[in-house]
Amino acid sequence: MATFPHYTRIRFQPACFPASCFQAVIQILLYQSPRNIVLERVGTLVAPLEVIRNLNDAIARLHALRAAAPDETGLPRVPNIIGLSLDRLQGPKRADLRTALKLWKQQNRYATTRNIARMTANPAFGGGGVAWMPGQDRCLIESWPQSYRSYGDRSCDSLLGRDVRDLPDSDYIIPTTRGYFTVAQQQAPRLELIEALVTRDDGSKFWSRYERLILPWRTSATDTFVTSVPLVRLVRAC
Hints:
Elements: E1 2-3, E2 8-12, H1 19-32, E3 37-41, E4 49-52, H2 55-67, E5 80-84, H3 95-106, H4 113-119, E6 129-134, E7 140-143, H5 170-176, H6 178-186, E8 190-199, E9 205-218, E10 223-237
Parallel strand pairs: 2-3
Antiparallel strand pairs: 1-2, 3-4, 5-8, 6-7, 6-10, 8-9, 9-10
């Protein structure tokens, strides 16, 4: 751990991060409150360097990386999912996410089923996915995000309307849709950072890191749709 005038750098190996050392790092961060934190992961093949400009996000990220158990390739077996502060939306690279949040507020969080269908083609929503949460205990895919083109040439349209529990690549899909249920239950927007190993239909894999803004839309007293607005950071073949 090294401190410089404009940032603090933490160089570590997530799988070998003793609890006592981890606690000491957290205490130092809380005491110094640096404006910029650089996380440098040792022993990983994917995205070893991150710059985080929010102290709470940095601490949460360290928790998530330490908790994730890497496999022999250095890639986590389950997605890393971390909730981020909505304050991050003020960053210059997140203008599209801010626009989506502004539209959501202008609509007073309500929409008709016709408007929901239009959102799938609205550039303001970044080609993200749409899911229907009937009764808030099920999650049915209404529209795939454009990022699903990374899965290959096979169309996923036959899977529209299916519950997420019935979809392929459940190791990726099920954990990453938990945020949908959280948003539907709390009726509040949620910003997440996700790092995940994704399996294509042909069995090949790719590594993806992205942020997403999840927004709840009420269409009735009991029905909620959610839109997921992505901000892709990295897609890399494994």
